[in-house]
Write a sequence for this structure.
C-alpha cells in the first residue's frame, strides 16, 4: 500500500498514538481481551438472529434470511465533529427540499441557469405527473439518508443523497441497544448522546406534516411492500416503535379520493403514509400498471390533498448522481452560503471534457451509474481487471449521460475485530435527517457501514459489508486523559 | 386493528396450538410404542396419523407405516401441511408479518421454536425424538407465557381465539380416533381399559395427573370420556374450550362494539354442551357426536372469518 489511510482512532500513527480525545476508546480497544470482544460480538449476532433482524437476499429461498454482520468496536465522533456535521446536514437537506419544491413549482433555479434545464426535466428521476402539485407543508424529502465518507480529520464528504426511502435506521437503534447491553463499561466511561429519540422525532414529524384538513390526532401508517421485502424487519420495527399500523397495499382502499384502511371494525381514514415502496409501484393507475404492491387511486388522494406521502413522490430526482454533482451550487443558490459539507469531486460524463478525462483515467477512477445504488453497476478502477475496465469503457461510450466518475477515495478506517485482532477497515456513514417544513432534526448517530474484507472499499451489506454502532460524545465527555 | 392483522393473529394461535398438540401426540406415541414394556406397534402409529388428519396424505407418499417414517412425516415433512415443521413455519411467517401486534417476547418464542426445527430433517432414536419434542413443547410454553403477559387488547384476544378453536378441534379428533381403536365394537363402555392406551390419550392433552385428581375411582372409559368432553376443570376439555371461545368473542365484542353470527353460534353450542351428559353422548353414538362437533367447529371458524372481515 503506497500510503496509509486516515484511521479515526489512530490518525496516521499506525496504531502507536491515538488522536487527541480518543485515548480512552483506544485503551478500551487495546485492553479488552480479543476473546472477550469476540464473545460479545457472537452474543450480539445471536440476539439479532433471535430477534429476526434479518434481510433477505433476493432470488433465494427462505433460508436466505441473513443477519448483517455486526462489529463490536464502535465508531466515535467527538461533540465538535458532530456539531459541524449536523450543521452541514441541516443546510444540505433544507436546500434539497427547496430544490425539489422549486423544480416541481416555479423552476427558478433552472431559469437562472444554475442547473441545466435538460438535466432536470429530461432526467428519468424527474416525475412530470407530480409537477405543480405541492405536497402538504411543501416538504418533499421528510426523511433523508445522506451517505458520507471521511478522508481526514476534518474532511467529511457527501457521497450521495438518499431522498427516496432510505433504509438502515433500525440498525442505528438496534446496534446501540446491543452495545448498551454488551459493553456497558463504554457508556460509563463516555457520555454518549442517545439515539432512541429517533422514533419520537419521527412520530412528531409525521403528525406535523399531516394535511391541513386532517384531525388534530392524524392517523399515520407505515406502508410496506410485505414481509418478503428485504427491509421488512425495519418496517415492522419502525411501525412498532413509532406506534402506528404497519399496512400492506391490500389493507388500503381509496374511495372518493380518501384513503381508508380495512380494520376489523370497518374502514378507518388514513391521513399520513410513510411509504417504503418506490414511486414506481405506488399506484398502478399512475405509475407501473403491473404493480401488485401499490394502492389504486392513492395518487388521486394525494393530488386532492387528502393524504401526505412520506417521502413525496418525485423526490428521486435529487438522488440522481448528475444532480448530486450540482449540490454545492444548489446549496449556495437557496441558502446564500457556501455548502458546509463538500461533495466528492465528480466528473459528469455528459460533458465531453469530463468524458475524455474519465476514459483516459478509468483505471484510477470510480465510475457510477447516475441512477445506480446498492454498490451495483459501478466500476472501481484500481481493483478491477483490464477486461472489466474495457467492458465498462464500452458501456460508458455507449451512454455517457448515464455515468459520472469520481476519484478513488482514501476512505477512513476504524478498528474492526478480525481474526487477527482489531484492524483498520474502511467505513462510510449514513445519518438520518428529518424535515417537517418548520425544522430539520438529525438524531446524533447513524448507520456506520464497514467493509469487512481487508482493503475493500465496498461497504454494502449485499456485498460483504457489516455495521457498527456510531457513538456521538457529549460536549462534557471530552477527556484530556 | 387491521383485519389482516387480526386474521394472521388468529392463525398464529391456531398453528402454535396445533404444533403443540402434534408434538404431544408424537411424544405420547413414542412412549406408548418404543418406551413401554409392551410395544403398541403399528396400530399406535396409524392412529397417530388419523388423529393428525394425515392418514390419507401419508398413504400418498407410498411409505410403509413404521415408527420412524410416521414420526418423520408428522414432525418434519414439508409435504404434510400439518407437520410440526409446517405449523411452526406458518406460525412464524404470520408472526413475522404482524410483528407489530406481538410483543418482542411473543415473537422471540415463535422464532426460537422455528429455528429449533429448521434445518433438521430426521428424528433419531426414540430418546432423541423425545428430547427434540420436549424442547419444542418448552418453547411453546414460552409462547403461552408471553401471550399471557400481553396487554388485554385485540391482539391478545385474537391469538387466544385461534388457540381455543384449535383446541376444541384437536381434543375432539383425539377422542374420536382413539375411542374406536381402544374400545372395539361390542365391548362394554364401562369395562376395564388398556392402561397404556388411555395413558397416551391423557398425556396428549397433558391430563394424566388431572385425571387422578378428578376420578379417584380409577381408569374407566366413561370417566376418561367424561373428563375430556365435559369437565370444565380440564383446560383442554371440549367444554372448557367451548367456554373459552364464548368468553373471548364476548371480550372482542366489548372492545369493538360488534357481536354477530360467531357469538350466536358459540353460545348456542355452549348451552347444548351444558345440557347434556356423558351417558347421553355415548348412548347417541360417540363418533356421530364428535363428527358433528368437529364440523360445527369448522363452521364457527368460518363465521369468525366473516365477522371480523378476515378476507
Amino acid at each position: 500500500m503506497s500510503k496509509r489511510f486516515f484511521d479515526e482512532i489512530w490518525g496516521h500513527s499506525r496504531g502507536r498514538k491515538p488522536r487527541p480525545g480518543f485515548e480512552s476508546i483506544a485503551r478500551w480497544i487495546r485492553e479488552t481481551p480479543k476473546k472477550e470482544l469476540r464473545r460479545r460480538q457472537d452474543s450480539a449476532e445471536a440476539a439479532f438472529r433471535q430477534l429476526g433482524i434479518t434481510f433477505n437476499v433476493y432470488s433465494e429461498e427462505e433460508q436466505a434470511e441473513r443477519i448483517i454482520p455486526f462489529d463490536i468496536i464502535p465508531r466515535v465522533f467527538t461533540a465538535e465533529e458532530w456539531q459541524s456535521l449536523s450543521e452541514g446536514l441541516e443546510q444540505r437537506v433544507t436546500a434539497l427540499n427547496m430544490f425539489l419544491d422549486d423544480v416541481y413549482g416555479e423552476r427558478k433555479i433552472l431559469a437562472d441557469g444554475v442547473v441545466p434545464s435538460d438535466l432536470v426535466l429530461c432526467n428519468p428521476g424527474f416525475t412530470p405527473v407530480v409537477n405543480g402539485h405541492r405536497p402538504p407543508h411543501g416538504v418533499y424529502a421528510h426523511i433523508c439518508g445522506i451517505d458520507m465518507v471521511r478522508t481526514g480529520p476534518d474532511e467529511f464528504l457527501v457521497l450521495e443523497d438518499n431522498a427516496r426511502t432510505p433504509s438502515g435506521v433500525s440498525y442505528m437503534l438496534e446496534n446501540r441497544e446491543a452495545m448498551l447491553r454488551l459493553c456497558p463499561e463504554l457508556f460509563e466511561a463516555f457520555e454518549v448522546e442517545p439515539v432512541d429519540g429517533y422514533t419520537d422525532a419521527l412520530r412528531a414529524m409525521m403528525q406535523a406534516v399531516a394535511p391541513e384538513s386532517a384531525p388534530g390526532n392524524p392517523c399515520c401508517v407505515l406502508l410496506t411492500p410485505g414481509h418478503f421485502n428485504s427491509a421488512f424487519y425495519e418496517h415492522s420495527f419502525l411501525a412498532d416503535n413509532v406506534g402506528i399500523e404497519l399496512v400492506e397495499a391490500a389493507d388500503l382502499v381509496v374511495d372518493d379520493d380518501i384513503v381508508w384502511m380495512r380494520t376489523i371494525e370497518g374502514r378507518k381514514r388514513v391521513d399520513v403514509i410513510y411509504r417504503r415502496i418506490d414511486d414506481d409501484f405506488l399506484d398502478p393507475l399512475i405509475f407501473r400498471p403491473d404493480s401488485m404492491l401499490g394502492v389504486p387511486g392513492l395518487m388521486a388522494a394525494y393530488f386532492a390533498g387528502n393524504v401526505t406521502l412520506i417521502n413525496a413522490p418525485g423526490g428521486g430526482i435529487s438522488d440522481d448522481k448528475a444532480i448530486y454533482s450540482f449540490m454545492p451550487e444548489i446549496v449556495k443558490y437557496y441558502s446564500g452560503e457556501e455548502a458546509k459539507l463538500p461533495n466528492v469531486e465528480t466528473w459528469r460524463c455528459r460533458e465531453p471534457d469530463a468524458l475524455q478525462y474519465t476514459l483516459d483515467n478509468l483505471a484510477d477512477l470510480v465510475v457510477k451509474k447516475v441512477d445506480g445504488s446498492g454498490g451495483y453497476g459501478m466500476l472501481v478502477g484500481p481493483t478491477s481487471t483490464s477486461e472489466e475496465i474495457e467492458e465498462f469503457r464500452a458501456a460508458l461510450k455507449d451512454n455517457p449521460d448515464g455515468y459520472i466518475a469520481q476519484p478513488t477515495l482514501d476512505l477512513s478506517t476504524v478498528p474492526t475485530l478480525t481474526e487477527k485482532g482489531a484492524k483498520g477497515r474502511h467505513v462510510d456513514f449514513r445519518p438520518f435527517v428529518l424535515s417537517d417544513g418548520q425544522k430539520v432534526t438529525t438524531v446524533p448517530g447513524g448507520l456506520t457501514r464497514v467493509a469487512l474484507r481487508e482493503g475493500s472499499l465496498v461497504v454494502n451489506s449485499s456485498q460483504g459489508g457489516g455495521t457498527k454502532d456510531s457513538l456521538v460524545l457529549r460536549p462534557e465527555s471530552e477527556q484530556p486523559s | 386493528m387491521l383485519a389482516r392483522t387480526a386474521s394472521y393473529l388468529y392463525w398464529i394461535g391456531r398453528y402454535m396450538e396445533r404444533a403443540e398438540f402434534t408434538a404431544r401426540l408424537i411424544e405420547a406415541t413414542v412412549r406408548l410404542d418404543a418406551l413401554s414394556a409392551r410395544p403398541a406397534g403399528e396400530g399406535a402409529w396409524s392412529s397417530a396419523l388419523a388423529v393428525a388428519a394425515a392418514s390419507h396424505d401419508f398413504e400418498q407418499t407410498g411409505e410403509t407405516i413404521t415408527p420412524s417414517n410416521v414420526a418423520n412425516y408428522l414432525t418434519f415433512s414439508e409435504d404434510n401441511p400439518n407437520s410440526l415443521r409446517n405449523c411452526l413455519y406458518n406460525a412464524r411467517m404470520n408472526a413475522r408479518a404482524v410483528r407489530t401486534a406481538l410483543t418482542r417476547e411473543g415473537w422471540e418464542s415463535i422464532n426460537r421454536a422455528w429455528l429449533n426445527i429448521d434445518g433438521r430433517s430426521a428424528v433419531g432414536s426414540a430418546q432423541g425424538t423425545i428430547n427434540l419434542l420436549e424442547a419444542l413443547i418448552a418453547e411453546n410454553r414460552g409462547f403461552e407465557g408471553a401471550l399471557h403477559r400481553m396487554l388485554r387488547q385485540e391482539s391478545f384476544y385474537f391469538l387466544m381465539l385461534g388457540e381455543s378453536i384449535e383446541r376444541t378441534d384437536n381434543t375432539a379428533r383425539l377422542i374420536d380416533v382413539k375411542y374406536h381403536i381402544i374400545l372395539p365394537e361390542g365391548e362394554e363402555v364401562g369395562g376395564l381399559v388398556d392402561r397404556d392406551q388411555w395413558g397416551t390419550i391423557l398425556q396428549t392433552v397433558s391430563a394424566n395427573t388431572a385425571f387422578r385428581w378428578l376420578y379417584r375411582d380409577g381408569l374407566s372409559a366413561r370417566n376418561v370420556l367424561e373428563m375430556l368432553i365435559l369437565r370444565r376443570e380440564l383446560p383442554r376439555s371440549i367444554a372448557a374450550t367451548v367456554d373459552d371461545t364464548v368468553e373471548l368473542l364476548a371480550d372482542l365484542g366489548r372492545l369493538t362494539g360488534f357481536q354477530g353470527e360467531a357469538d350466536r353460534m358459540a353460545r348456542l353450542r355452549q348451552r347444548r354442551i351444558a345440557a347434556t351428559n356423558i351417558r347421553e353422548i355415548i348412548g347417541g353414538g360417540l363418533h356421530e357426536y364428535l363428527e358433528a362437533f368437529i364440523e360445527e367447529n369448522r363452521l364457527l371458524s368460518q363465521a369468525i372469518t366473516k365477522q371480523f372481515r378476515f378476507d
Remarks:
- Chain B has two domains: 1-150, 152-311.
- Chain B has 15 helices and no strands.
- Chain B touches chain A at residues 1-6, 93, 96-100, 104, 107-108, 111-112, 115, 154, 256-258, 308-309 (CB under 8 Å).
- The CA atoms of residues 265 and 299 of chain B lie 9 Å apart.
